[in-house]
Amino acid sequence: MAVVKIPKESLIKLTFSLGLDEHGKEILRKKSLSHVKNDATDDNIYYVAKGISGLQQHTLMDVVRQDNSSLSE
Asked: Which of 3, 9, 42, 66 lies 20 to 30 A from 35 at CA?
């Protein structure tokens, strides 16, 4: 039997820069957004992440989309 891939909800990970520590190393913090519809476009996700970053005092450094799927026969 063929294996079937069933898309599940996506996860978005935002990375923010909080500045530099006493050694000059960048301090990063991550926030995750779960229960994102799997059919959301990359553009929509990116612009929502940019909008959320506008509500933060720290600089948005990275947006990662993690798609999840279930496999079955």
From this structure: 3
